[in-house]
Design a protein that fits this description.
Two copies of one chain form a homodimer.
Chain A lengths: L4 E12 L2 E5 L9 E3 L7 H12 L4 E12 L4 E2 L2 E2 L3 E10 L8 E3 L14 H16 L3 H11 L11 H10 L23 H18 L10 E2 L1 H12 L5 H10 L3 E8 L7 E6 L21
Parallel strand pairs in A: 1-7
Antiparallel strand pairs in A: 1-2, 1-3, 2-8, 4-7, 5-6, 9-11, 10-11
Helix pairs in contact in A: 2-3, 4-5
Chain A binds a DNA duplex (30 and 30 nucleotides) through helix 7.
Chain lengths: ~300, ~300
Amino acid sequence: MNHIRSELVAVLIAVQDEMPLVLTLDQGRNLPSGPLETAHRSLQRGMRLWIEQQTQCHLGHIEQLYTFAEATGADIGGRDHPRLIRISYMGLTRLGETQEGWRGLYEYFPWENRREQGADQLDAEIGRALLQWAGRDAARLWRCAETFGLDGQPWNDELVLHRYELLWEAGLLPESRHHAPWLVPGRCMPSDRRRILATALARLRAKIRYRPVVFELMPETFTLWQLQRTVEAIAGRPLHKQNFRRLILAQDLVEETGEAETQLQGRPARLYRFRGTVIGTRHLMGSKLPIARSI
Amino acid sequence: MNHIRSELVAVLIAVQDEMPLVLTLDQGRNLPSGPLETAHRSLQRGMRLWIEQQTQCHLGHIEQLYTFAEATGADIGGRDHPRLIRISYMGLTRLGETQEGWRGLYEYFPWENRREQGADQLDAEIGRALLQWAGRDAARLWRCAETFGLDGQPWNDELVLHRYELLWEAGLLPESRHHAPWLVPGRCMPSDRRRILATALARLRAKIRYRPVVFELMPETFTLWQLQRTVEAIAGRPLHKQNFRRLILAQDLVEETGEAETQLQGRPARLYRFRGTVIGTRHLMGSKLPIARSI
DNA sequence: GCTGGTTATGCTCTCATTGAGCATAATGGA
DNA sequence: TCCATTATGCTCAATGAGAGCATAACCAGC
């Protein structure tokens, strides 16, 4: 027989003040997790109920990420059994009243946030360290260039996990097996939890392009500019404003509420609402969100 | 404590004679599976070794699909524990010498193979049955149209799982909870294994578009036409020949071997080989494969 | 050797999408 | 009233994808 403990791990993501946030425990060192007890018909459903019970958040989109096994187990009957299976999920939500435990996602991946100026400098430092690690190995050099957009290559925001793994291999992370002389800044998590985080961000960035899941992160009504800022927060880079509007409006994803939001300066912006919740279906399969190639 | 049995399930896929094949057991009614015993550092690695040991296939690309829980367990301590966790993987391979157990994938999903003429008729029958199920429910009608390309909507080959689930819900499959008067033809599998198959095909069709995994299904050298036929086999529909060539050649995915293959008729075709195996990296991240919108 | 059938390969044309920027509209404050 | 600021509308060029014509290179038969 083969007895194994199993655990659900949740990566809950919200966006506030143009920054993606993740729900953490233990001073940002851990992710919400629990034993796989209340599994209902499906894991998905069990996960949703469990999370909504634990945190008071209502979960919009929910998605299984990956299943990891930890082989820390001692030999049992001559075979190395994994002792713990971790099934990770990503969930999107709006920030409730309890702001406790939410941390900026980019605290864990500073290099993934390319919206501000400071990004360039960190980028250069990482590039230097990577090239040193790669040495003359052509495959390594090529990989560095592709994942980090070094050699004139374009930056691909979806390669979050690739970048994390590359940094890990290069010994540039505190959790790396062997350390390089210089380490990339960024908040850590024990075990492979930062890897799970990276998986979640990669998946979210990929998903946001071809399924309208951003709206799960938005309030009921919003301006197109707010929508764009939310997408930018997740994509980690700026988008072209006029083209963003064009793409959104061309797809009938949203409809005007008829009202407008007047901010401190400038012309008031029209308010919109997501049509997917109005129509029966939240998926709207044909529709893609922007971030074509951005800047 | 929480003791659970766990199982690995493998969906092994190969392509032969322009048809995708899947490795099955038990007269095509089952998929290779086994307890999660020999897990090494990672599940992935354990899976690969286990599969390669069981079947004599060398696995190219391998990918985790999904983790299911079966909640058939009786109450233990007042809580409904899932008893079995199934972690499913998809692997790509070339057909070895042992052809035993390989079945045509489209025997399980006849409606997904849209390369021949007969597809139209089956399509019409399914369409009729679906519309009957949908009745006047707008959300249902919309969903049917989107997933099966009914109302002038384009056919989206990646929606394999959506279509399977829709057919299931509509009571058109033998494994459905309630049966409609007419059932869609197609080979069955007990439990949720046909669903796992559908997941694999959906994933493969999606992946083949933006990562050069087709080459894992190809022999060492091949003509562009053979390559196209393999892609078509997986995508389930025909592609435009000249455009396929253009796309492949434009991306430096392949290089000429210098030789040509002369078939029975016509001008001999040049032989190519995949560059990814020559260069260190098998991923070639920037590169997309065809099937843009096809015919 | 020449001819027609057949398949491979090269090239063009058009249309849709995307990246980028200019121009105008509508607000508040000086 | 004028100006700074933001929202919105529109144009233009570059690129990529769908479709089809034209040519090349082989075979079999005469």
